[in-house]
Request: fold
Amino acid sequence: MVFKSFIAQRPPWYFLLPAILVGISVTIPLVYLLIRAIEGDWQQSWELIYRYRNLVLLFNTLALTLGTLIVTTIISFPLAWLTTRTDIAGNKFITLMGVLPLAIPGYVLAYALLGLGGANGTMAQLFGIHIPRPSGYWGALFAISLYTFPYLFLNLRSGMLGIDTSTEEAARSLGYSSRQILFKVTLPQLKPAFYAGILIIALYVIGDFGAVSLMRFETFSYALYLQYAASYDRIYAAWIALMLLSLTGAILLIEYRLLKGLLFYRTGTGSGRKLRISKLKWAKWPAYLFVGLVITASIAVPVLTILFWMAQGVDPIVWNNLGSALRSSVIASAPAAVIAVLLAVPLAYISVRFPSGISNTLQRFAYLGYATPPLALALAFVFFSLNVVPFLYQSLALLCFAYALHFMAEAIGPVRSALYQASPKLEEAARSLGYHRFKAFTKATLPLLFNGIVVGAAFVFLSSMKELPITFLLSPIGFETLALNVWSFTAEAMFAEAAPFALSILFFSVFFVGILFSREWKKE
Reply:
């Protein structure tokens, strides 16, 4: 029935084929990952799966994920509350500072924390204060938490702005205290926003490689890298990748079950009340202290650490390599952004204009690529290219395509939003004038998607610039990006040499975040 409905609507073949290509491109490498894992005999596979070390890796991965969710919640909820429900001064500035840590990748924050401590660290050289260099669980926890909390902050802030406070007023009229209203009325309405934020963070933590490797904390991702790069045990690496995928799938399933049946929109008539703004009074000083600590830890410390190490003097050869690394990052990220958009437009188009179970399934393949841990995805492409298309192994083309496939979901969102705002009647009018369906689309609808396409491409470009695990496994020999240089120099404790590359990533990211916020504030 679903298939007949899908065929009856007749999506154009030139939109359907790219969507199918995405599904195949995501599925086939993962199938090859499974084939590689079962290449060994069953006794060997059984021993690899049930070895004690895997339990340690699972515990470490889950402990880091849970710890990160706790820390990010402690940071994000008060920050979202202060910027939406109180009269705190500098609201826009605080909101911007709450988002800006996204411009500093987890491995750059790990670099900053490592450069801060130790006998020759920033604190020791500037203030004579010797603090231990962070490592292991706590080092990885703080580095990842300071990078990922904006994901939850943005979701909670959006959720708070969308709450209909008439329910709170009704509870207040029934004699509920502020604390009871918070836990029984407000927080339940924030569940969708909270789940959305923690899903992104959990997927990131499970797939993170940069911060955990620099902090020497063994999770599944770090173990996958060690098995592939160090001992080159491909069968065990494949099993670890499949374990990573299983963990990711379990989290997606839990998130789906938690969100199922949640409805918080108004069902009655009338308009929602405006948010009730609380006056901080004496509490403003603790609020400013909290905001100051967050900004200092997530922005000031990493930026000042980078600048400090740059001031120590950088070898001229490093400066020469900076131009090459920047060029490599651009020539890999720009094509990836173009490919992602070229595939995202057909996917978004058939899901919006020809909604059905099949079109929605095809669109979800793009999100499967995004949800797949990057090291697992890269390893799947390694196995696939070596066995099927060996001429693509460690080629720029494969790297660009892997970027596009992994980050395509970031391009689909803005394009789909633009499509919802573009009336299909424009295409119908163009076709009534004699235009072919494709030409009607390019003449009537495509110009209306321009802003969504640009934003989506910018998202993919920036994410590809910062990407480390996929670059590490799939980049051509001698192909060094900004991300690879930050990671490799930091791993050798060469903080001064890593500083220019970290600053370049930071500059691109801050510039991009600034553009996005300027666009948002112009709309207000």
Notes: Residues 1-8, 265-272 have pLDDT under 50 and may be disordered. The chain has two domains: 1-39+313-524, 51-102+135-265+275-310.
